Amino acid sequence: MQATLGPGATRRLLKRLRDMMAAAGTAQQRLDRIVKIIADDLIAEVCSVYVMRAGQVLELFATEGLNPDAVHKTRLRVGEGLVGEIAQTARTLALADAQSHPNFAYRPETGEEIFHSMLGVPILRGGRAMGVLAIQNRTFRDYAEEEVEALQTVAMVLAELVASGELVSPDEMLRTEDAGLVASERIDAQRLNEGIAIGTIVLHQPRVSILRMVADDPAAEKKRLREAAQGMRSDIERIFADSGLAAGDERWEILETYRMFAEDRGWLQRIADAIDTGLTAEAAVQKVQEDNRARLAQVSDPYIRERVADFDDLANRLVRHLTGDKTAAARTDLPDDMILVARNLGPAELLEYDRRKLKGVALEEGSTTAHVAIIAHALDLPMVGHAQGLLARVEAGDPAIVDAVGGQIILRPREDVRDTFAAALRARAERRAGYAALKDLPAVTRDGTPVSLNMNAGLVIDLEHLAESGADGIGLYRTEIPFMIRSTMPDVVEQTDLYRRILDRADGKPVVFRTLDIGGDKLLPYLDAAPQENPAMGVRAIRLTLDRPAILREQVRGLLRAAGGRRLDIMFPMVAEVAEFDAARDLLDIEIAREAKRGRVLPDPIRVGVMLEVPALYWQLPQLAKRVDFVSVGSNDLMQFMFAADRGNPDVSERYDPLSPGMLGFLRAIARECDGAEIPLTLCGDMAAHPLEAMALLGIGYRRLSMPFPAIGPIKAMVRALDLPPLAKYLEELCRLADRSVRKKLADFARDHNIPV
Ligand code: PEP
Ligand code: MG
Asked: pLDDT, tens digit, for every residue of 102-118?
C-alpha cells in the first residue's frame, strides 16, 4: 500500500510531532511515541531512530516494529551497514530490496530479516549527521518521492530533539571530542590546487543554526522568506561592488552566474511550497537544499553537480539572513593561520575570506573543475577535496595540515609530523625565493644552449604570473576554461574583449591560443552533447568544432579582431590527420577574408599550428610541415593514447612512465622530424612541468617547453645547471633499453652532475 502525502498531510504529521515533542515525559518516552506516529503515518511496519554516540557509533534508540530488546543494544559504526552509510554520506537511501545492497549488515537481534524495503534519512545538524531515521516494510516497496520528502522533513524536526542533549549527554560527546583532540587522523583527499598549509581549522558553517523547524503561520514565514531573499540579493550586489572586478574577468562571470541563480523563481517557489508543509522559512530552505543535493547526486554531468555547490552557497546565505547567524567569514576573531573546512564551498564564499589569514582549504566534496578550485588556483591557495568523512571528524580549532601535494589532510597532527611538514613548507618558500632570484636570468644550459620556457594559462588572472615568473610567453592558452565557467556561450563581442585583454596583459609576449578543446569530460552546460562511452576518444576538440563550424568560426573571428595589428598564434587541438588541419585552416581563411573585406586591420603575423597529441599525426609530419608554422606536443593526451591508458583513471594513469624508452623514443622521433622540416616545436603537457622529465626532453632535442607558472623557476634552475651533450649521448643509450622506465637512471645522472631535479 502506498501513502499519498500532500503538503497538508505532512503539515498534520509535523504538528503531531511537535505536540509530541513538547509533551511531558522523558526524551526517551517522547522518542518512543514519535516512532509509532511516523510508522503509522507513513504506513511502514518499522520506524527506527539511531542516535550518534561518542566514538562515531550509531545506537538504536527507539523502534516501532523491530525487536524492542535490540533498543540500546544494536550499534553500528559510521560507515557500517546501510544506517552507517547514511550517516557517513549524509544522504538518503531508498531501497526496495535493501538486503541485496552490498553494504547491508544483518543484525540478528533486531529481527529485521523479514523486512525487505527500507527508506533511511540522515538526521542532520550543520551538515553533520547526528543520527539516522529509517522506515522499513515487508514488501519490496518503492518509496514515492513525497514519502522520501516527508521523512526528510520529519528528520529535520527530530534533529531538534537529538541536539537538545536529552538523549545523549553533551558531556559524553565532549569527552570524545577531547579524545579526538589527541588522536591524529589522516584522510585521503584529492588535490584541487597544489601546495601545503599548516594551521587551525575554521568551520565555514558554524554548527547548530536552525532552532525552529515547525511554524503555524505559512503567510508570515513566506514574508520572512521574501525579506531574506532580498537581503541575499543585496549581499551578492555588495560582493560584486567590493570585488573591484570588471565584466570579462572570470570571477565576474562566476558572480554573474550567482546573480542568475539568486533570481531563480523555481528555487524560491519550491521553498515556498515547503513552507506550506508546515516548516519555518529557514527549515524550508534547508529542506529544498537537501532535496537538491539528493537529486543532483545522481546526475553525472559534472557541470550540474558543481552547481549544487553554488546553490548551497546561496541557500546558506538565505538561512543566515533568516536566523541572523553569521558565517565564519563575517567573524572578526579568525586565526591568522586559517584552514577552512566545508562540505562544499561556493566561489563567492571563498572570496569573502581575508586572503592573508587563509592558508588552505579542505572540502568534503568539491572537484578539480569546480568554480571554487579555479578561484583557489588563481589565489595560489592550497586546496584538497573529496575528503570523505572530513566534517564528522573535525572540530573548529583543531590543528591541521592540508597536504595538497601528497593528497591528504592530517587532523591534529603529531608534533613530529607537523615539524616535517613545517620543514617542507619552509623549503618550498626558500625554493620559491631562490627561483624568484632566477627570474631575470636567461634559461641557458651550461654549454650555451638557449631554452624557451613558457607558461600555460586559462584565466585572465593567470596573466599576472607572466611577468612575475619570467616566462617567455604563454605557450598554451586553454580557451575552453573561460567557456566552462559560464552559463551561456560567449558571443563574438565577448570573446573579442576577453582575448584582447589577454593580449594586452601579455604586454607583447606571445600567447598561443588553443581553440576550444571541449567534449570528452570538459562539457559546456549550454552545448548539449550526447553521452559518449569513451569521451576522451569521442567527439571532442577539433572534431567537435569541425562538426559545428559556427563555433570555431566565431572563435577565430574573436581572435582575429582582438589581435588586429599585432601577432596572433592559433593552435588546433587533437588533430589526428592533415585533412583535419586543412579543414580548420579553411575556416580560418574564410574568416580572414571576411575581416579583410570589411576593412578590419588583421593580425600580423598570423601563425597557425597544431597540437600533436594523437600518435597518428606523427606519420604525416612531412605533409604537415608545409602547412603549419609550429607544432606543440600535448604529452598528457599523447601519453594516454600511446599506452591506451585513460589519463583520468587513477588505476591506469600512473601505470606507465613517460620516462620509458618507448615514450622517449617516440618523442625523440617527433623532435627529429620537426627539426629536419624546420618546424618550431614546443611541448606543453605536464611532462614539461617536472624537472627530471623536462631534463629528458632537453636531452632528446626539445628546446621550447610550456608549463604551469609555478614550475618555471624549478625548470630554469635545472636548465642552468645542465650540460647538454653528455645527457644527449646518455639518452641515446637509454632509449635502446628494454627497461620499463629509465627514471632512476636519469635521476642518478642528475645527482652525479649536480642538476637540481
Ligand atoms: C595535453 O594533452 O598534453 C595538453 C596540454 O592538453 P590538455 O591537457 O588541455 O588536454
Ligand atoms: Mg590535450
From this structure: 999 888 999 988 999 99
Residue from 368, 478, 481, 640 to probe ligand 1 pocket by mutation (most atoms less than 8 Å from CB): 478
Reduced to 3 states, what is the DSSP secondary structure of residue 215? Answer: coil
Residue of the nearest CA to atom 3 in ligand 1?
634
Residue 480 alpha carbon, nearest atom of ligand 1:
9
What pLDDT sits at residue 23?
Answer: 81
pLDDT band at 245 (very low <50, low <70, confident <90, very high): low
Give the pLDDT confidence score for residue 304 in this predicted structure: 63
Q: Which ligand is nearest to the CA of 683?
A: 1
SS3 content of the chain, % helix, strand, coil (to 5): 50, 15, 35
Instruction: Mention every residue, 6+ apart, whose C-beta is less than 8 A from residue 557.
Output: 492, 495, 496, 591, 594, 595
**Which protein residue's CA is at the shortest distance from atom 8 of ligand 1?**
636
What are the Cα distances from residue 524, in Å, to 373, 521, 696? 17, 9, 36
Nearest residue by C-alpha to atom 4 in ligand 1:
634
Whether pLDDT at 188 is above 50:
yes
The set of cell numbers assigned to 306 is 558543481
Note the pLDDT of residue 178: 39
Atom of ligand 1 nearest to the CA of 632: 5
Q: How many residues does the chain have?
A: 757
Tell me what pLDDT residue 177 has: 45
Provide the residue type at 501 as one letter: R
Q: Give residue 208's pLDDT band: very low, low, confident or very high (50, 70, 90).
A: very low
Cis peptide before 68 (omega within 30 of 0): no
What is the residue with the minimal CA distance to atom 6 of ligand 1? Answer: 634
User: What's the rounded Cα separation, in Å, for the pair 288 and 292?
Assistant: 6
Q: What's the pLDDT tens digit per position in 284-304?
A: 998 888 777 766 666 666 566
Q: Is it the case that residue 41 has pLDDT exceeding 80?
A: yes
Cα 552 to ligand 2 centroid, rounded to whole Å: 17
- Inform me whether the pLDDT recorded for 174 exceeds 60: no
**Bridge pairing between strands 474-478 and 704-707:** unpaired
- Interval between CA 540 and ligand 2 midpoint (Å): 10
The pLDDT assigned to 416 comes to 86
- pLDDT tier at 477 (50, 70, 90 boundaries)? very high
* pLDDT for the residue numbered 179: 41
87 CB contacts (<8 Å, ≥6 apart)? Answer: 50, 52, 58, 78, 79, 122, 129, 131, 132, 392
Residue 77 near residue 85, CB atoms below 8 Å: no
Least confident of 350-359, 495-504, 644-653: 644-653
Query: Which residues keep their CB under 5 angstroms from ion ligand 2?
Result: 613, 634, 637
In angstroms, rounded to a whole number, what is the distance separating the alpha carbons of residues 675 and 704?
A: 12
Which of 29, 30, 47, 48 has the alpha carbon at shortest distance from 39? Answer: 47
Contacts of the segment 255-261: beta carbons below 8 A, 24+ positions apart: 255/347, 255/348, 256/487, 257/310, 257/485, 257/486, 257/487, 258/310, 258/313, 258/314, 258/346, 258/348, 259/233, 260/487, 261/307, 261/310, 261/311, 261/314
Q: How far apart are CA 357 and CA 363, in angstroms?
A: 18
Of the residues 481, 518, 636, which should be mutated to test ligand 1's pocket, given the most ligand atoms within 8 Å of the CB? 636
Closest ligand to C-alpha of residue 684 is: 1
The closest-lying atom of ligand 1 relative to the alpha carbon of residue 613 is 2
CA 581 to ligand 2 centroid distance, Å? 16
Q: What residue has cell string 569513451?
A: 534
Pocket-forming residues, ligand 1, beta carbon under 6 Å: 476, 478, 517, 613, 634-637, 684-685
pLDDT score of 686: 86
Catalytic residues: 371, 684
* Best residue among 637, 642, 646, 681 to mutate for probing ligand 1, ranked by most atoms within 8 Å of CB: 637
> What's the CA gap between 660 and 654, in Å, rounded?
12
The amino acid occupying position 386 is: H
Ligand 2 geometric centre to CA of 502 (Å): 21
